[in-house]
Write a structure and sequence with these properties.
single chain; mainly alpha; 3 domains; 77% helix; 0% strand; globular; disordered N terminus; transmembrane
Length: 226
């Protein structure tokens, strides 16, 4: 039941984001990432701010997540994405709970399964939200607003954000590798490219394997709870 509800939300999110997914929009995001890269030490702070805005505005943040890997590398990129996504999710949660309850209720009014979500979250808010966050395939933006209508506390909702870490690292890692691909044929490329890429590929496979495994466990646990 939860999976059906989330799929329905994902469809709505895709429809509402279609204009933001135009080539011109992605070009704008690419230019924004280049600008962030030119800011030096301030780049991380600016990136986090833009990520928060993207989360609140239902903008597809995938290119930002991948871009973080290119600009900041795996460790700092994952940290900046996690902070931006968490703060953006908390902001959307608070808006949904206190400022736009009517609008959020209208958006999810056709999803009868939301009652089941609400009941499950009321019993084990931290656990359910954490399991939802563990799966990078789950919708993100509208769900942040929708969870503001449930009885989950802000504390539990915030702590559950740690469930985003595996998926965040995986996508940032992909962006990091894409940045490495751009070095091929460049004078700044590492001396031992074969060894370098072997390590990178092993790291990527390991990251994907862990993320997929954790996602399967999370889905199974959610099906048992709902």
């Amino acid at each position: 039941m939860l999976m059906t509800f989330l799929s329905e939300i994902d469809l709505t999110l895709a429809q509402e984001s279609i204009k933001a997914s135009s080539p011109s929009f992605f070009t704008f995001l690419q230019n924004t990432l280049q600008w962030i890269n030119s800011l030096g030490s301030l780049g991380g702070i600016v990136f986090i701010g833009i990520y928060i805005i993207a989360t609140l505005a239902f903008l597809p943040a995938a290119i930002l997540t991948l871009g973080a890997g290119v600009i900041f590398g795996v460790i700092w990129g994952s940290l900046y994405v996690f902070v931006g996504a968490t703060l953006g999710a908390i902001a959307a949660f608070l808006v949904g709970r206190y400022l736009a309850r009517g609008w959020v209720k209208e958006k999810i009014s056709s999803y009868k399964k939301f009652t089941n979500i609400d009941q499950a979250v009321s019993k084990e808010g931290l656990k359910i939200v954490f399991l939802i966050r563990l799966s990078p395939l789950f919708p993100f933006n509208l769900l942040n607003y929708a969870l503001g209508l449930t009885n989950v506390s802000l504390k539990d909702y915030s702590l559950a954000s740690f469930g985003m870490i595996p998926g965040t690292i995986m996508y940032v890692y992909l962006g990091y590798l894409a940045g490495d691909l751009a070095l091929i044929g460049n004078k700044n490329q590492p001396d031992n490219m074969i060894f370098h890429w072997l390590i990178q590929i092993i790291g990527l496979i390991s990251t994907i394997a862990v993320t997929v495994y954790v996602t399967k466990i999370a889905k199974k646990a959610l099906e048992e709870e709902i």
